[in-house]
Protein backbone atom coordinates (compact mmCIF):
# COMPACT_ATOMS: atom_id res chain seq x y z
CA UNK A 1 0.00 0.00 0.00
CA UNK A 2 2.92 2.31 0.63
CA UNK A 3 3.86 1.96 -3.06
CA UNK A 4 0.28 2.81 -4.01
CA UNK A 5 0.40 6.00 -1.93
CA UNK A 6 3.74 6.96 -3.46
CA UNK A 7 2.30 6.34 -6.90
CA UNK A 8 -0.66 8.52 -6.02
CA UNK A 9 1.56 11.34 -4.86
CA UNK A 10 3.57 11.22 -8.08
CA UNK A 11 0.30 11.14 -10.09
CA UNK A 12 1.61 8.48 -12.46
CA UNK A 13 -1.29 5.99 -12.22
CA UNK A 14 -3.60 5.65 -15.24
CA UNK A 15 -6.55 8.03 -15.13
CA UNK A 16 -10.08 6.66 -14.77
CA UNK A 17 -12.57 6.79 -17.62
CA UNK A 18 -15.02 8.96 -15.68
CA UNK A 19 -15.18 11.78 -13.18
CA UNK A 20 -17.46 12.12 -10.16
CA UNK A 21 -18.86 15.38 -8.84
CA UNK A 22 -21.65 17.12 -6.93
CA UNK A 23 -23.71 19.31 -9.29
CA UNK A 24 -25.86 22.09 -7.82
CA UNK A 25 -28.78 22.76 -10.18
CA UNK A 26 -30.40 25.59 -8.23
CA UNK A 27 -31.19 26.95 -4.79
CA UNK A 28 -31.80 24.41 -2.02
CA UNK A 29 -30.25 21.14 -0.88
CA UNK A 30 -32.87 19.30 -2.94
CA UNK A 31 -30.98 20.52 -6.02
CA UNK A 32 -27.58 19.25 -4.84
CA UNK A 33 -26.66 16.07 -6.70
CA UNK A 34 -29.19 13.56 -8.02
CA UNK A 35 -31.26 11.65 -5.52
CA UNK A 36 -28.93 12.96 -2.83
CA UNK A 37 -25.82 11.47 -4.46
CA UNK A 38 -22.93 12.72 -6.61
CA UNK A 39 -23.02 11.86 -10.29
CA UNK A 40 -20.58 10.26 -12.71
CA UNK A 41 -19.63 12.25 -15.80
CA UNK A 42 -17.04 11.80 -18.57
CA UNK A 43 -13.50 12.83 -17.71
CA UNK A 44 -13.04 16.52 -18.53
CA UNK A 45 -11.15 17.36 -21.71
CA UNK A 46 -8.30 19.85 -21.57
CA UNK A 47 -6.71 21.84 -24.36
CA UNK A 48 -3.14 22.73 -25.28
CA UNK A 49 -3.16 25.79 -22.99
CA UNK A 50 -4.82 24.01 -20.06
CA UNK A 51 -4.07 21.66 -17.18
CA UNK A 52 -6.01 18.68 -15.93
CA UNK A 53 -5.90 18.59 -12.13
CA UNK A 54 -6.89 16.06 -9.49
CA UNK A 55 -8.64 17.44 -6.41
CA UNK A 56 -6.98 15.90 -3.37
CA UNK A 57 -8.74 17.70 -0.51
CA UNK A 58 -11.51 20.27 -0.21
CA UNK A 59 -12.56 22.21 2.86
CA UNK A 60 -16.23 23.09 3.23
CA UNK A 61 -17.04 26.74 3.85
CA UNK A 62 -20.16 28.60 4.92
CA UNK A 63 -19.84 30.49 1.65
CA UNK A 64 -20.86 27.19 0.01
CA UNK A 65 -24.05 27.25 2.08
CA UNK A 66 -24.80 30.75 0.77
CA UNK A 67 -24.60 29.47 -2.82
CA UNK A 68 -26.89 26.54 -1.96
CA UNK A 69 -29.34 28.93 -0.31
CA UNK A 70 -29.35 31.55 -3.06
CA UNK A 71 -28.68 29.60 -6.25
CA UNK A 72 -28.70 31.91 -9.28
CA UNK A 73 -29.48 34.87 -7.00
CA UNK A 74 -25.98 34.63 -5.54
CA UNK A 75 -23.91 37.63 -6.72
CA UNK A 76 -21.11 35.40 -8.00
CA UNK A 77 -23.34 33.18 -10.11
CA UNK A 78 -24.38 34.39 -13.56
CA UNK A 79 -25.42 31.32 -15.51
CA UNK A 80 -28.36 28.95 -15.96
CA UNK A 81 -27.60 26.41 -13.24
CA UNK A 82 -30.12 23.90 -14.58
CA UNK A 83 -28.10 23.57 -17.79
CA UNK A 84 -24.68 24.33 -16.35
CA UNK A 85 -24.70 23.42 -12.65
CA UNK A 86 -22.32 24.88 -10.11
CA UNK A 87 -19.77 22.54 -8.55
CA UNK A 88 -18.83 23.97 -5.16
CA UNK A 89 -15.47 23.89 -3.39
CA UNK A 90 -12.97 26.76 -3.31
CA UNK A 91 -10.78 25.58 -0.39
CA UNK A 92 -8.97 23.04 -2.50
CA UNK A 93 -5.63 21.27 -2.84
CA UNK A 94 -4.86 19.92 -6.30
CA UNK A 95 -2.27 17.93 -8.24
CA UNK A 96 -1.55 18.22 -11.97
CA UNK A 97 -2.34 14.97 -13.79
CA UNK A 98 -2.35 16.27 -17.36
CA UNK A 99 -0.44 19.07 -19.11
CA UNK A 100 -1.48 20.72 -22.38
CA UNK A 101 1.19 20.60 -25.06
CA UNK A 102 1.85 24.35 -24.99
CA UNK A 103 2.39 24.31 -21.22
CA UNK A 104 4.87 21.45 -20.97
CA UNK A 105 7.85 23.73 -20.42
CA UNK A 106 6.12 25.28 -17.38
CA UNK A 107 4.27 22.42 -15.66
CA UNK A 108 4.69 18.72 -15.13
CA UNK A 109 2.53 15.89 -13.89
CA UNK A 110 2.75 15.71 -10.10
CA UNK A 111 3.01 19.47 -9.51
CA UNK A 112 0.88 20.51 -6.55
CA UNK A 113 -1.03 23.77 -6.14
CA UNK A 114 -3.65 25.68 -4.24
CA UNK A 115 -5.75 28.31 -5.97
CA UNK A 116 -6.72 31.87 -5.15
CA UNK A 117 -10.47 31.49 -5.54
CA UNK A 118 -11.26 35.08 -6.59
CA UNK A 119 -10.31 34.82 -10.26
CA UNK A 120 -10.77 37.76 -12.62
CA UNK A 121 -10.38 37.69 -16.38
CA UNK A 122 -11.10 40.76 -18.52
CA UNK A 123 -12.69 42.34 -15.48
CA UNK A 124 -15.17 39.51 -14.93
CA UNK A 125 -15.12 37.45 -11.72
CA UNK A 126 -15.01 33.68 -12.31
CA UNK A 127 -14.52 32.34 -8.81
CA UNK A 128 -13.30 28.78 -8.30
CA UNK A 129 -16.15 26.72 -6.91
CA UNK A 130 -18.65 29.23 -8.27
CA UNK A 131 -18.40 29.89 -12.01
CA UNK A 132 -15.44 27.53 -12.38
CA UNK A 133 -15.91 23.89 -11.35
CA UNK A 134 -14.67 23.50 -7.79
CA UNK A 135 -13.20 20.93 -5.47
CA UNK A 136 -16.32 18.81 -4.86
CA UNK A 137 -15.29 16.84 -7.92
CA UNK A 138 -12.47 14.43 -8.50
CA UNK A 139 -10.97 16.25 -11.48
CA UNK A 140 -11.07 19.71 -13.00
CA UNK A 141 -9.56 21.85 -15.76
CA UNK A 142 -7.33 24.84 -15.11
CA UNK A 143 -7.68 27.20 -18.04
CA UNK A 144 -6.17 30.54 -19.05
CA UNK A 145 -8.57 32.49 -16.84
CA UNK A 146 -6.66 30.98 -13.91
CA UNK A 147 -3.20 30.75 -15.45
CA UNK A 148 -3.20 34.18 -17.08
CA UNK A 149 -5.98 36.24 -15.52
CA UNK A 150 -6.13 39.90 -14.61
CA UNK A 151 -4.09 39.20 -11.47
CA UNK A 152 -1.59 36.96 -13.24
CA UNK A 153 -1.39 33.29 -12.28
CA UNK A 154 -3.89 32.38 -9.56
CA UNK A 155 -2.15 29.08 -8.74
CA UNK A 156 0.38 28.87 -5.90
CA UNK A 157 2.84 25.94 -5.81
CA UNK A 158 2.80 23.65 -2.78
CA UNK A 159 5.74 21.62 -1.46
CA UNK A 160 5.49 17.82 -1.83
CA UNK A 161 5.80 17.40 1.95
CA UNK A 162 2.77 19.59 2.74
CA UNK A 163 -0.40 17.69 3.62
CA UNK A 164 -3.46 17.79 1.42
CA UNK A 165 -5.85 19.02 4.14
CA UNK A 166 -3.12 21.33 5.37
CA UNK A 167 -2.91 22.85 1.89
CA UNK A 168 -6.65 23.12 1.31
CA UNK A 169 -7.18 25.00 4.57
CA UNK A 170 -4.63 27.66 3.69
CA UNK A 171 -7.48 29.47 1.90
CA UNK A 172 -9.75 30.08 4.93
CA UNK A 173 -6.71 30.73 7.08
CA UNK A 174 -5.58 33.40 4.59
CA UNK A 175 -8.85 35.24 5.27
CA UNK A 176 -8.08 35.11 8.99
CA UNK A 177 -4.58 36.54 8.78
CA UNK A 178 -5.79 39.15 6.28
CA UNK A 179 -8.08 40.52 8.98
CA UNK A 180 -5.02 41.58 10.94
CA UNK A 181 -3.28 43.25 8.02
CA UNK A 182 -6.00 45.73 7.10
CA UNK A 183 -4.85 49.24 6.27
CA UNK A 184 -6.91 52.40 6.13
CA UNK A 185 -6.16 55.89 4.89
CA UNK A 186 -5.01 58.44 7.45
CA UNK A 187 -5.71 61.51 5.27
CA UNK A 188 -8.18 62.80 2.71
CA UNK A 189 -8.03 60.73 -0.45
CA UNK A 190 -5.75 62.39 -3.01
CA UNK A 191 -7.62 63.18 -6.24
CA UNK A 192 -10.83 61.97 -4.59
CA UNK A 193 -14.10 63.63 -3.63
CA UNK A 194 -14.44 65.32 -0.24
CA UNK A 195 -17.73 66.53 1.18
CA UNK A 196 -17.67 68.89 4.19
CA UNK A 197 -20.93 69.41 6.07
CA UNK A 198 -21.64 71.85 8.86
CA UNK A 199 -24.02 70.87 11.65
CA UNK A 200 -25.29 72.29 14.92
CA UNK A 201 -22.38 73.00 17.23
CA UNK A 202 -19.89 73.61 14.44
CA UNK A 203 -17.13 76.03 15.34
CA UNK A 204 -15.63 78.72 13.12
CA UNK A 205 -11.88 78.07 13.29
CA UNK A 206 -11.47 74.83 11.33
CA UNK A 207 -8.47 74.11 9.16
CA UNK A 208 -6.95 71.19 7.28
CA UNK A 209 -3.34 70.89 8.35
CA UNK A 210 -2.31 68.26 5.79
CA UNK A 211 -3.68 66.67 2.64
CA UNK A 212 -5.08 69.92 1.28
CA UNK A 213 -2.13 71.54 -0.39
CA UNK A 214 -0.13 71.38 -3.61
CA UNK A 215 1.49 68.05 -2.73
CA UNK A 216 -1.77 66.23 -1.96
CA UNK A 217 -5.40 67.24 -2.23
CA UNK A 218 -8.84 66.06 -3.38
CA UNK A 219 -9.96 66.75 -6.92
CA UNK A 220 -13.46 67.80 -5.94
CA UNK A 221 -14.91 69.60 -2.91
CA UNK A 222 -18.56 69.54 -1.90
CA UNK A 223 -19.79 72.01 0.74
CA UNK A 224 -23.00 72.06 2.80
CA UNK A 225 -23.72 74.58 5.57
CA UNK A 226 -20.02 75.13 6.22
CA UNK A 227 -19.34 78.10 8.57
CA UNK A 228 -18.61 81.20 6.50
CA UNK A 229 -15.03 81.78 7.66
CA UNK A 230 -14.00 78.18 7.01
CA UNK A 231 -15.87 78.08 3.70
CA UNK A 232 -13.96 81.17 2.61
CA UNK A 233 -10.66 79.57 3.56
CA UNK A 234 -11.52 76.38 1.65
CA UNK A 235 -12.50 78.29 -1.50
CA UNK A 236 -9.35 80.41 -1.32
CA UNK A 237 -7.23 77.25 -1.18
CA UNK A 238 -9.27 75.43 -3.82
CA UNK A 239 -8.68 78.02 -6.55
CA UNK A 240 -4.89 77.61 -6.91
CA UNK A 241 -5.23 73.85 -6.51
CA UNK A 242 -7.73 73.61 -9.36
CA UNK A 243 -10.43 71.96 -7.25
CA UNK A 244 -14.03 71.88 -8.37
CA UNK A 245 -16.15 73.38 -5.56
CA UNK A 246 -19.84 72.46 -5.47
CA UNK A 247 -22.43 73.77 -3.05
CA UNK A 248 -24.83 71.01 -1.99
CA UNK A 249 -28.23 71.98 -0.63
CA UNK A 250 -29.96 68.59 -0.37
CA UNK A 251 -27.81 66.13 1.60
CA UNK A 252 -30.08 63.28 0.52
CA UNK A 253 -29.11 63.81 -3.14
CA UNK A 254 -25.56 65.13 -3.63
CA UNK A 255 -24.76 65.79 -7.30
CA UNK A 256 -21.67 63.59 -7.13
CA UNK A 257 -21.51 60.05 -5.78
CA UNK A 258 -19.89 57.97 -4.46
CA UNK A 259 -17.87 60.14 -2.07
CA UNK A 260 -14.46 59.22 -0.69
CA UNK A 261 -14.48 61.48 2.38
CA UNK A 262 -17.41 62.95 4.28
CA UNK A 263 -16.43 65.36 7.05
CA UNK A 264 -19.12 66.34 9.55
CA UNK A 265 -18.48 69.50 11.56
CA UNK A 266 -20.56 69.02 14.68
CA UNK A 267 -22.57 66.20 16.25
CA UNK A 268 -25.72 65.47 14.29
CA UNK A 269 -26.87 61.82 14.17
CA UNK A 270 -29.50 62.48 11.50
CA UNK A 271 -26.87 63.87 9.15
CA UNK A 272 -24.53 60.91 9.75
CA UNK A 273 -27.27 58.43 8.88
CA UNK A 274 -28.40 60.44 5.85
CA UNK A 275 -25.00 60.86 4.22
CA UNK A 276 -23.25 57.58 5.09
CA UNK A 277 -24.93 55.68 2.21
CA UNK A 278 -23.09 57.98 -0.23
CA UNK A 279 -19.66 56.70 0.88
CA UNK A 280 -17.49 55.03 -1.75
CA UNK A 281 -15.75 51.72 -1.22
CA UNK A 282 -13.02 52.39 1.37
CA UNK A 283 -14.80 55.65 2.13
CA UNK A 284 -14.24 57.52 5.40
CA UNK A 285 -16.68 59.54 7.47
CA UNK A 286 -14.90 61.90 9.86
CA UNK A 287 -16.75 63.46 12.80
CA UNK A 288 -15.09 66.61 14.10
CA UNK A 289 -17.02 67.65 17.19
CA UNK A 290 -16.77 68.54 20.86
CA UNK A 291 -20.27 67.69 22.09
CA UNK A 292 -21.51 64.10 22.38
CA UNK A 293 -24.03 62.75 19.92
CA UNK A 294 -27.51 62.72 21.47
CA UNK A 295 -28.15 59.09 20.44
CA UNK A 296 -26.58 56.02 18.90
CA UNK A 297 -26.14 55.81 15.14
CA UNK A 298 -27.61 53.12 12.88
CA UNK A 299 -24.37 52.07 11.14
CA UNK A 300 -24.42 49.84 8.06
CA UNK A 301 -22.06 47.21 9.45
CA UNK A 302 -22.43 45.17 6.29
CA UNK A 303 -20.73 48.02 4.41
CA UNK A 304 -18.07 48.25 7.11
CA UNK A 305 -17.40 44.55 6.46
CA UNK A 306 -17.68 44.34 2.68
CA UNK A 307 -17.00 47.91 1.50
CA UNK A 308 -14.49 48.85 4.19
CA UNK A 309 -16.34 51.98 5.34
CA UNK A 310 -14.46 53.63 8.18
CA UNK A 311 -15.45 56.17 10.84
CA UNK A 312 -12.84 58.45 12.41
CA UNK A 313 -13.08 61.59 14.50
CA UNK A 314 -11.44 64.30 16.52
CA UNK A 315 -12.28 67.11 18.94
CA UNK A 316 -9.97 69.86 17.72
CA UNK A 317 -10.11 72.34 14.85
CA UNK A 318 -7.73 70.49 12.50
CA UNK A 319 -9.65 68.06 10.30
CA UNK A 320 -6.43 66.33 9.22
CA UNK A 321 -5.73 65.27 12.80
CA UNK A 322 -9.09 63.52 13.00
CA UNK A 323 -7.60 61.16 10.41
CA UNK A 324 -3.99 60.93 11.49
CA UNK A 325 -3.88 61.10 15.30
CA UNK A 326 -5.26 57.59 15.87
CA UNK A 327 -4.87 55.48 12.72
CA UNK A 328 -6.60 52.12 12.56
CA UNK A 329 -4.78 49.29 14.34
CA UNK A 330 -5.56 45.93 12.77
CA UNK A 331 -3.13 43.81 14.79
CA UNK A 332 -4.16 42.59 18.23
CA UNK A 333 -2.73 44.81 20.95
CA UNK A 334 0.36 43.22 22.52
CA UNK A 335 -0.34 42.38 26.14
CA UNK A 336 -3.92 43.56 25.71
CA UNK A 337 -7.37 42.22 26.40
CA UNK A 338 -9.07 40.53 23.44
CA UNK A 339 -12.63 39.25 23.10
CA UNK A 340 -13.63 36.77 20.38
CA UNK A 341 -17.41 36.91 19.95
CA UNK A 342 -18.78 33.65 18.55
CA UNK A 343 -15.44 31.93 19.00
CA UNK A 344 -16.62 28.32 18.98
CA UNK A 345 -16.98 27.78 15.23
CA UNK A 346 -14.33 26.78 12.68
CA UNK A 347 -13.23 30.34 11.91
CA UNK A 348 -13.34 31.25 15.61
CA UNK A 349 -10.93 28.40 16.32
CA UNK A 350 -8.54 29.85 13.77
CA UNK A 351 -8.65 33.33 15.29
CA UNK A 352 -8.12 31.98 18.79
CA UNK A 353 -5.29 29.69 17.69
CA UNK A 354 -3.52 32.57 15.99
CA UNK A 355 -3.91 34.83 19.05
CA UNK A 356 -2.48 32.18 21.35
CA UNK A 357 0.48 31.48 19.07
CA UNK A 358 1.43 35.13 18.45
CA UNK A 359 4.89 36.01 19.65
CA UNK A 360 3.54 39.19 21.23
CA UNK A 361 -0.15 38.54 21.58
CA UNK A 362 -2.87 39.45 24.08
CA UNK A 363 -2.44 38.77 27.79
CA UNK A 364 -6.10 37.81 28.20
CA UNK A 365 -8.42 36.14 25.71
CA UNK A 366 -12.16 35.94 26.33
CA UNK A 367 -14.06 33.49 24.11
CA UNK A 368 -17.85 33.56 24.01
CA UNK A 369 -20.26 31.24 22.22
CA UNK A 370 -23.83 30.05 22.77
CA UNK A 371 -22.79 26.38 22.48
CA UNK A 372 -21.34 24.64 25.54
CA UNK A 373 -20.14 21.85 23.27
CA UNK A 374 -18.13 24.27 21.16
CA UNK A 375 -16.71 26.05 24.20
CA UNK A 376 -15.63 22.74 25.75
CA UNK A 377 -13.90 21.79 22.53
CA UNK A 378 -12.24 25.22 22.33
CA UNK A 379 -10.93 24.86 25.86
CA UNK A 380 -9.79 21.26 25.31
CA UNK A 381 -7.97 22.31 22.16
CA UNK A 382 -6.27 25.50 23.33
CA UNK A 383 -6.59 25.87 27.11
CA UNK A 384 -3.33 24.18 28.05
CA UNK A 385 -1.42 25.93 25.26
CA UNK A 386 -2.76 29.29 26.37
CA UNK A 387 -1.62 28.68 29.95
CA UNK A 388 1.79 27.54 28.72
CA UNK A 389 2.11 30.81 26.80
CA UNK A 390 1.15 32.89 29.83
CA UNK A 391 -2.28 33.80 28.47
CA UNK A 392 -5.40 33.92 30.62
CA UNK A 393 -8.07 32.22 28.49
CA UNK A 394 -11.69 32.51 29.61
CA UNK A 395 -14.70 30.82 27.98
CA UNK A 396 -18.23 32.14 28.63
CA UNK A 397 -21.67 31.22 27.31
CA UNK A 398 -24.14 34.15 27.00
CA UNK A 399 -26.99 31.64 27.32
CA UNK A 400 -26.01 31.13 30.97
CA UNK A 401 -27.12 34.66 31.80
CA UNK A 402 -26.05 34.91 35.44
CA UNK A 403 -22.63 33.28 34.99
CA UNK A 404 -22.04 35.28 31.82
CA UNK A 405 -22.91 38.58 33.52
CA UNK A 406 -20.59 37.75 36.43
CA UNK A 407 -17.78 36.82 34.04
CA UNK A 408 -18.11 39.91 31.87
CA UNK A 409 -18.46 42.27 34.84
CA UNK A 410 -14.73 41.99 35.40
CA UNK A 411 -14.09 43.64 32.01
CA UNK A 412 -16.71 46.40 31.97
CA UNK A 413 -14.58 49.09 33.62
CA UNK A 414 -11.36 48.38 31.72
CA UNK A 415 -12.90 47.45 28.39
CA UNK A 416 -11.44 45.33 25.62
CA UNK A 417 -8.58 46.50 23.45
CA UNK A 418 -9.78 44.22 20.65
CA UNK A 419 -13.21 42.78 19.91
CA UNK A 420 -13.25 40.30 17.03
CA UNK A 421 -16.84 39.64 15.93
CA UNK A 422 -17.42 36.20 14.42
CA UNK A 423 -21.22 36.12 14.88
CA UNK A 424 -23.25 37.88 12.15
CA UNK A 425 -25.91 39.21 14.53
CA UNK A 426 -26.46 43.00 14.61
CA UNK A 427 -27.63 43.10 18.25
CA UNK A 428 -24.56 41.14 19.33
CA UNK A 429 -22.30 43.49 17.41
CA UNK A 430 -23.94 46.54 18.96
CA UNK A 431 -23.59 45.12 22.46
CA UNK A 432 -19.97 44.11 21.93
CA UNK A 433 -19.03 47.62 20.81
CA UNK A 434 -20.07 48.96 24.22
CA UNK A 435 -17.23 47.02 25.83
CA UNK A 436 -14.45 48.71 23.84
CA UNK A 437 -11.68 50.36 25.83
CA UNK A 438 -10.33 53.78 24.82
CA UNK A 439 -8.47 53.33 21.52
CA UNK A 440 -10.05 49.88 21.27
CA UNK A 441 -10.72 48.25 17.91
CA UNK A 442 -13.71 46.18 16.87
CA UNK A 443 -13.08 44.02 13.81
CA UNK A 444 -16.29 42.82 12.16
CA UNK A 445 -15.11 39.57 10.58
CA UNK A 446 -18.54 37.92 10.37
CA UNK A 447 -20.17 38.19 6.96
CA UNK A 448 -23.13 40.43 7.75
CA UNK A 449 -25.01 41.47 4.62
CA UNK A 450 -24.86 44.93 3.11
CA UNK A 451 -27.67 47.03 4.53
CA UNK A 452 -27.49 45.39 7.96
CA UNK A 453 -27.69 48.08 10.63
CA UNK A 454 -26.37 48.09 14.19
CA UNK A 455 -26.76 50.91 16.71
CA UNK A 456 -23.27 52.14 17.63
CA UNK A 457 -22.16 54.97 19.90
CA UNK A 458 -20.05 56.99 17.47
CA UNK A 459 -19.36 59.59 20.14
CA UNK A 460 -16.70 57.14 21.28
CA UNK A 461 -15.01 57.49 17.89
CA UNK A 462 -13.97 61.10 18.55
CA UNK A 463 -13.96 61.14 22.34
CA UNK A 464 -12.32 57.77 23.12
CA UNK A 465 -10.73 57.04 19.74
CA UNK A 466 -12.40 53.66 19.25
CA UNK A 467 -12.23 52.24 15.72
CA UNK A 468 -14.60 49.86 13.93
CA UNK A 469 -13.06 48.01 11.02
CA UNK A 470 -14.19 45.13 8.84
CA UNK A 471 -12.91 42.46 6.56
CA UNK A 472 -13.96 40.13 3.77
CA UNK A 473 -11.99 37.50 1.82
CA UNK A 474 -8.27 37.59 1.05
CA UNK A 475 -5.84 38.42 -1.72
CA UNK A 476 -3.35 36.17 -3.41
CA UNK A 477 -0.66 37.86 -1.33
CA UNK A 478 -2.52 36.81 1.83
CA UNK A 479 -2.75 33.28 0.46
CA UNK A 480 0.96 33.26 -0.35
CA UNK A 481 1.86 34.49 3.12
CA UNK A 482 -0.36 31.94 4.83
CA UNK A 483 1.13 29.14 2.74
CA UNK A 484 4.59 30.34 3.76
CA UNK A 485 3.62 30.30 7.44
CA UNK A 486 2.11 26.83 7.05
CA UNK A 487 5.11 25.33 5.31
CA UNK A 488 7.48 27.03 7.77
CA UNK A 489 5.61 25.46 10.70
CA UNK A 490 4.56 28.84 12.13
CA UNK A 491 0.80 28.14 12.03
CA UNK A 492 -0.76 24.72 11.63
CA UNK A 493 -3.82 24.91 9.40
CA UNK A 494 -4.47 21.21 9.99
CA UNK A 495 -5.44 21.86 13.61
CA UNK A 496 -8.71 23.25 12.26
CA UNK A 497 -9.91 19.84 10.99
CA UNK A 498 -12.85 18.45 12.99
CA UNK A 499 -14.40 15.91 10.62
CA UNK A 500 -13.50 14.17 7.38
CA UNK A 501 -15.21 12.18 4.64
CA UNK A 502 -14.95 11.04 1.06
CA UNK A 503 -16.71 12.76 -1.84
CA UNK A 504 -19.95 10.89 -1.13
CA UNK A 505 -20.05 12.55 2.33
CA UNK A 506 -19.98 16.12 0.99
CA UNK A 507 -23.73 16.62 1.22
CA UNK A 508 -23.75 15.47 4.85
CA UNK A 509 -20.76 17.70 5.51
CA UNK A 510 -22.54 20.74 4.10
CA UNK A 511 -25.63 19.96 6.18
CA UNK A 512 -23.46 19.66 9.27
CA UNK A 513 -21.87 22.99 8.44
CA UNK A 514 -25.27 24.63 8.09
CA UNK A 515 -26.35 23.19 11.44
CA UNK A 516 -23.09 24.15 13.19
CA UNK A 517 -22.61 20.51 14.18
CA UNK A 518 -18.82 20.67 14.45
CA UNK A 519 -16.48 23.14 16.14
CA UNK A 520 -13.92 22.88 13.36
CA UNK A 521 -13.61 22.38 9.62
CA UNK A 522 -15.02 19.57 7.54
CA UNK A 523 -12.55 18.31 4.91
CA UNK A 524 -13.59 16.14 1.98
CA UNK A 525 -11.06 13.85 0.25
CA UNK A 526 -12.54 13.32 -3.25
CA UNK A 527 -10.23 10.49 -4.29
CA UNK A 528 -10.94 8.09 -1.41
CA UNK A 529 -13.32 5.15 -1.32
CA UNK A 530 -16.56 5.79 0.53
CA UNK A 531 -15.95 7.21 4.00
CA UNK A 532 -19.00 8.63 5.75
CA UNK A 533 -18.73 11.98 7.47
CA UNK A 534 -16.67 11.16 10.56
CA UNK A 535 -15.54 13.21 13.54
CA UNK A 536 -11.86 12.71 14.28
CA UNK A 537 -12.63 11.20 17.70
CA UNK A 538 -14.84 8.56 16.03
CA UNK A 539 -11.94 7.31 13.90
CA UNK A 540 -10.93 5.27 16.95
CA UNK A 541 -13.62 2.73 16.09
CA UNK A 542 -13.80 3.17 12.31
CA UNK A 543 -10.14 3.56 11.31
CA UNK A 544 -8.00 2.88 14.39
CA UNK A 545 -4.79 3.03 12.38
CA UNK A 546 -5.60 6.60 11.37
CA UNK A 547 -6.77 7.50 14.88
CA UNK A 548 -3.45 6.32 16.31
CA UNK A 549 -1.64 8.97 14.31
CA UNK A 550 -3.76 11.90 15.48
CA UNK A 551 -2.12 14.34 17.87
CA UNK A 552 -3.41 13.69 21.38
CA UNK A 553 -6.33 11.78 19.93
CA UNK A 554 -7.90 14.95 18.50
CA UNK A 555 -5.54 16.81 16.19
CA UNK A 556 -5.20 16.09 12.45
CA UNK A 557 -1.66 15.36 11.27
CA UNK A 558 0.02 14.64 7.97
CA UNK A 559 0.86 11.19 9.33
CA UNK A 560 -2.82 10.50 9.97
CA UNK A 561 -3.62 11.70 6.46
CA UNK A 562 -1.00 9.40 4.93
CA UNK A 563 -2.44 6.43 6.82
CA UNK A 564 -5.95 7.40 5.70
CA UNK A 565 -4.84 7.38 2.07
CA UNK A 566 -3.01 4.06 2.48
CA UNK A 567 -6.19 2.47 3.77
CA UNK A 568 -8.80 4.07 1.52
CA UNK A 569 -7.21 4.89 -1.84
Can you describe this structure?
This protein is α/β, with parallel strands linked by helices and 569 residues long. It has three domains: 2-179 and 477-568, Medium-chain alcohol dehydrogenases, catalytic domain (Quinone Oxidoreductase, Chain A, domain 1); 193-324, NAD(P)-binding Rossmann-like Domain (Rossmann fold), CATH 3.40.50.720; 337-448, NAD(P)-binding Rossmann-like Domain (Rossmann fold, 3-Layer(aba) Sandwich), CATH 3.40.50.720. The chain is built from 19 helices and 26 strands. The strands form six sheets. Strands 3, 4, 5, 8, 9, 24, 25 and 26 form an eight-stranded mixed beta sheet that branches. α11 links the parallel β18 and β19 (392-396). It is globular. The model has no long low-confidence stretch (mean pLDDT 95).
Q: Tell me, briefly, the overall form.
A: globular
CATH superfamily of the largest domain: Medium-chain alcohol dehydrogenases, catalytic domain
Per DSSP, the total helix count is 19
β-strand percent reads: 15-25%
- Rg (C-alpha, Å): 26 Å
Name the quaternary structure: single chain
Structural class: alpha/beta
Task: State mean pLDDT (0 to 100 scale).
Answer: 95
- In CATH, the topology of the largest domain is named Quinone Oxidoreductase, Chain A, domain 1
| Domains (count) | 3
The residue ranges in which pLDDT falls below 50 over 5 or more consecutive positions are: none
- End-to-end distance: 9 Å
- Strand runs, count: 26
Level-1 CATH class name of the largest domain: Alpha Beta
The amount of helix comes to: 25-40%
CATH architecture of the largest domain: Alpha-Beta Complex
Biggest sheet architecture: 8 strands, mixed
Amino acid sequence: MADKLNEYRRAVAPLPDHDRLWPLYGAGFEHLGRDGRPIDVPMPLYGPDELLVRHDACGLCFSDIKVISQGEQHPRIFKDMRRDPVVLGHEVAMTVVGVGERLRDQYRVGDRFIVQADIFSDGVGYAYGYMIQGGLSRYGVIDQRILNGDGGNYLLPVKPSTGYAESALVEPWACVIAAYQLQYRSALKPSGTTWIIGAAGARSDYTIGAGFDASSHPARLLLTNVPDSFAGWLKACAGPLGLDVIEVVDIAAPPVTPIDDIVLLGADPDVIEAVSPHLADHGILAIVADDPLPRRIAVDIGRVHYNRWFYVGGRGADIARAYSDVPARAQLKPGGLAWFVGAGGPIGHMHVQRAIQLADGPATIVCTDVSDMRLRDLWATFGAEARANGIDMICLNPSAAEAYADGMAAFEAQGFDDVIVLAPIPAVIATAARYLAPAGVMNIFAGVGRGTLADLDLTQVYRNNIRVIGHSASTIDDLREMLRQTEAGELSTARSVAAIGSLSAARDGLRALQEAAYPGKVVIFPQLHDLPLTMLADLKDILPGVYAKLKNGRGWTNEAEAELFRELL
